[in-house]
Amino acid sequence: MTQTLPTPRGTLTPNRSLADLTWLRVGGPADWLFQPADEDDLAAFLAALPSDVAVFPMGVGSNLIVRDGGLRGVVIRLGRGFNGIEIDQSRVTAGAAALDAHVARRAAEAGLDLTFLRTIPGSIGGAVRMNAGCYGSYVADVLEEVRVVLRDGQVVDLPASALGLRYRKSDLPESAVVVRATFRAGRGDPAALQQRMEEQIAKRDASQPVKDRSAGSTFRNPVGHSSTGRADDSHALKAWKVIDDAGMRGATLGGAQMSPMHSNFLINAGGATAADLENLGEAVRKKVFQTSGITLEWEIMRIGEP
C-alpha cells in the first residue's frame, strides 16, 4: 500500500490509532491518517489516490465510535489550514476544522447571531454534514454555501439547497470532504448574544454529563421532526424519555454506561471498548423496542471493523 499512495505535502501516517482522536477514547487504527497542508494538497492527494482506497473524513471525533478493529483506508483529518473564520456584515465563512463554539463566539463579537452553535460539540464540517442544531435552530436555517473536495479531487461550491439538509442528515457524498462553509446570520447586540450563550452553557451543564467521556446525544429523537430539519419541541418525543421508560437509565456493559444524569448520553465510564459502547447502545435499542415499539436510530456514527 505504501507504493500506491501519493506523496502529499501534509502529514501521512500509517497504522495510526484513532482512539485518542475521538471523545470516547476508543477504537483501533486507521491504515492511514492524512492531515493535508491546505485545500490544494487535499485535492491533489484525492485525485491521485487509487479509486479502490476508501476515504473517511473525520472531524474532532465528537460524534463517533471507531470500532476496535480500526478502519481500512485513509482517514482525512483537517487541521490548522482549515480553521480560519472570516466575517463581513451579514456572513460568516468558517473553515471545516473551526470548532462550532469558536465560530459562535467570533460571530457574536461581530454582532452576528450563530449562538445555537455554541453548545454543539465538534467542528463546522461535521455540523454541516449532520445538519447540527439545538434550541430550535439548525445549520439548515443559516447555511448559504459549502465548499467540498470530492473523492476524485474536484473542488466544488454547493448551495445549501443542494445538500438535502434534514433532521441530523444531509445528502453530501459519503467521501466528500467539507473544507469550508458560509452562513448568513441575523444581527444582534454582542452583549445580548454573549449573555444568551452563557445561559445556554449553564442549561447544558446542569442537564448533561459534560465532564464524562461521551459523544453527545446517542440516539435521534424518534418523532416530531419536519423534513426541513426543524424540531417541534412542544410535540417531539424525546429519546431520553423512551430510554427512561424502558428502564435503561444508568445501564452498564463492561466500561460503558448510559449516563445516570442524561439517559441519552452513552459514556465511557472507564476502560470501555468500542464493542462495550456499541453493544450497550444496541441493548438499549432492543429494550426500547420491546417496551414501546419504537426503533431508536443512532445519532453517533459508528465506523470500522469489530
Q: Topology of this protein?
A:
Blueprint: E1 11-17, E2 29-35, H1 39-48, E3 55-58, E4 64-66, E5 71-77, E6 85-87, E7 91-95, H2 100-109, E8 112-113, H3 124-129, E9 133-134, E10 137-138, H4 139-142, E11 143-149, E12 155-159, E13 177-184, E14 186-187, H5 190-207, E15 213-217, H6 239-245, E16 252-253, E17 256-258, E18 265-268, H7 274-292, E19 301-303
Parallel strand pairs: 2-5, 3-5, 4-19
Antiparallel strand pairs: 1-2, 6-7, 7-13, 8-14, 9-10, 11-12, 11-13, 15-18, 16-17, 17-18
Using only CA atoms, what is the Rg? 19 Å
The CATH topology of the largest domain turns out to be Uridine Diphospho-n-acetylenolpyruvylglucosamine Reductase, domain 3
CATH class value of the largest domain: Alpha Beta
Taking the sheet with the most strands, its summary is:
5 strands, antiparallel
Give the overall silhouette.
globular
Distance between the termini: 22 Å
- Helical percent range? 10-25%
How many helical elements? 7
Beta-strand fraction estimate: 25-35%
Number of strands: 19
Average residue-wise pLDDT: 94
